[in-house]
Input
Amino acid sequence: MKILIVDDDATNRLVLGAYLKKDGFNIVSANNGQTAVDLFQSEAPDLILMDIMMPVMDGYESTIKIKSLSGERFIPIIFLTAMTDENALTRCVEVGGDDFLTKPYNRTILKAKIDALERVSELYNTNQQQKQEIIARREIEIQEQEVARRVFDSILSPGCLSSSDNIQLHLSPMSLFNGDVVLAAVKPMGGLNILFGDFTGHGLAASLGALPVSNVFYTMTAKGYSIADIVSEVNRKLKSQLPVGMFLAACLVEIDTSNNVIKYWNGAIPAAYLMQENSRIELKSKNLPLGILGDNSFSNQLDLIEIHNNDKIVLSTDGILEAENKQGAMFGVERFLECLNVEFIKNDQEKEKPDLFDHILENMNIFVDGFEQTDDVTLAVINCDIDYINQLSSDRENSKKFIPSHWDFEMCFYYDAIKSVDPVPLINQILREIQGHRIQQDKLSTILSELFCNSLDHGLLRLDSKTKSTPEGFMQFYADKELRLKELDEGFIRISIKNTPIKNGGDLSIIFEDSGPGFDTSKLGKTNIQLPDTDKPVAFSGRGILLINNYCQSISYNEKGNRVECVYHWSNSDHAD
Amino acid sequence: MSANILDLDILNELKEIMEDDFDELIETFILDGQAQLDNLRTATDAQLAADIRSIAHTLKGSSANLGANALSGVCKDLEHNVAVDNLDEIDESFEKIKNEYEAVKMALKENFQ
Output
């Protein structure tokens, strides 16, 4: 340990130097404050003994300079003083002195003070070193997080969220990573799927769950699955992958632009509303968050609401409702609903109607008045602009040109496969891969679904559709279906699809053949189908066949009635059929 | 020799610690002391209060370190008087310091040279 002695008196320097050398310290001496500053820089002593009254530069000034040069290191300075003047002692502390030693010097006291300060110094310097290490580690951590964030964003972003003008989104994360997740993707057959979610907690841990969610959401949306299937799969994934106690409050919305309805499933998103011209409809949460229930108790039942052009869907996490101001008050549902009322202002009034999204955020910001929030704040407003949403899907469509071509394929699903596989999205996907989205539209999907249902329900399961003609019977029909499907131990459904290209499209021959006994086809005209019991006011049954008949060029059965062939004409141009 | 002039315990301890360097210490103190006295003479003649105070302060400290308690004491008195603007007896004070210094010098030579 090296000690710098600063005293203008040679005797004092000699005496102190002698004491310290005897105790094994290295000694450097200066006879004024300026020399001390110079030696401090060139010799880097570990401790300094500093006289006060000296020529050139006194001990106070010298101490101030040395302390400012020490940076992060702690270099104890002991003032040498005969002074008993309180003001002088105060001044010593003010300039950064760490202790005093009074003359005449006592060797034992001097040694004790140096030892004590050496311990403080070690503690301080260890502390500083650890602090530096923590700062360095934190910097690496932030860098790593930023890289992770970029990867993360690219995984989460293949949807149409950022590129869609009808979606306004505000995400204000508590940290680099956000526990809120918002996904949107255009459906291959037109329409928009949206997932709006809020994981328990926030930050990196909360946001990791977004990866499997986005994976399932984008993949299944692209394959044409409905949000009912998507929500089930997301729930299953999260249930198996997330730790206990972590789950996802989520609202899934599908904007179906061909039928002008929204379908939604809400599990614990507190503020979800459909704003229509004169009314506000709550998209009520009827479910637990995702990732809690097992398949058996999970319900993927959707609710439907008819929509009109430019209705708005407003989705908010509890971060907004629970936004706090300095006084500890929460923004709350009342204020939120008050904000929504702005949508009912008529444009013909003098004042222009404010934008709903901006209005909500503005009001919340005024309310919290800069007070720092403890949760992620996420708000999305989606405009149900039907034409725009249709445009989104045709934009995607146009990015790749598909030329109608010759092809056919056949698939056969046996009884056990039917229990676990829904062939319709599978076939949709194949068709899309070969001919692009345009082939599908919504009609083809409906045709396939109905044909499959008919083959399954009547062919394999031998259910009687007549029972569906009353509401009670309808329920009974589905209960029977579930039971019989479970017990099914033989049979198959063979699906053959063949395309014959014509100008800008093609004729698609769709054949469904089942192993069932068939039915009496004589009751059906070849292309003009008479439904049984058409005079009944509530006709739940037979709708499928009617639809197929309307959508297809032709429909025909074999004599046995277990094989149906439809011809569907599809077109690549904007005005299909 | 009065113990007040020189505390031999302190000096013997220093001698034991410093070994060969001890002679240098005695010599330095005697030479430095003489230089301080000369400076003090000049300062008192010119009535330079700040200089008088500073010299008295330094000499007070170094003499205390060598166990020259009487010399340290008269230096302290002078420093104090100047600090409270009492310059009436500075010539007497100077004489006292000079005498004490001579006594210390003699005692040091007797005992250690």
